[in-house]
Specification:
Blueprint: E1 2-7, E2 10-13, E3 18-26, E4 33-39, E5 46-52, E6 57-59, E7 67-72, E8 77-82, E9 91-97, E10 101-102, E11 106-111
Parallel strand pairs: 2-11
Antiparallel strand pairs: 1-3, 3-8, 4-5, 4-9, 5-6, 7-8, 9-10, 9-11
Length: 112
Amino acid sequence: QVQLVESGGGLVLAGESLRLSCAASGSIDRSNVMGWYRQTPGKQRDLVAIITSGGATNYADSVKGRFTISRDNAKNTLYLQMNSLKPEDTGVYYCNVNFRYWGKGTSVTVSS
């Protein structure tokens, strides 16, 4: 089993920044893919960014150049640095491991 706990969400103004963290514990394969997904009410959960255990990354077009995903393998922690936030970035952000395990999410609200 894998446990994921997200933190760092909150209410910010457009243009501000937030840093999300996801602490992972349990039986995690050394070779893995971790990612952040975003969900808003009534919509599906969409990919924001993913990163492999080797450091390769991929981003949704809407966040390229503004968000940076990173990880600390020694601490089993995933991060998402979100800069120049926009109201459309609002949602619940979920951490994922290997497209299988999910955290409970952390809420981000960006006000204009």
